[in-house]
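agent> step 3/5: call structure_predict on target 'DUF190 domain-containing protein' (Empedobacter tilapiae).
agent> reason: downstream docking stage needs a structural representation; sequence fetched in step 2, passing through unchanged.
tool.input:
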Amino acid sequence: MEQYQLLRIYFKYGQKSKKLSFWQKLWNSSLSDQLLKAAKAQKIHHANIFIASAGYLNGGNIVYNVSELPPPKNTACLELIDEELKLQTFLKDNEAEIQEAISILIHPEIQLIK
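tool.output (status=ok):
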């Protein structure tokens, strides 16, 4: 069995990516999409984006997701599962993008059962 770690990156649903060209910003500038693509490019084993039904970040106001489109300040989470070194590399490579986000590396090892 392989040993994996879990990394969760929390950010606002409406948070925009910073390293896009002018034209890219017009069509898809969401941080969640850019981080998911970066995880795929770095061959992270598992990557999922979760949108909260309610929550808050950094002690702010509670935001409820009760409409078809989540509010921009709604909490989103990118969850990555892979070896710790790959997750640390992902954090370092995307440091500029996730400055305003909250990153949590959960150290207990996950046993991946195939």
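agent> step 4/5: record observation. Residues 31-41 form the longest helix (11 residues).
agent> proceeding.
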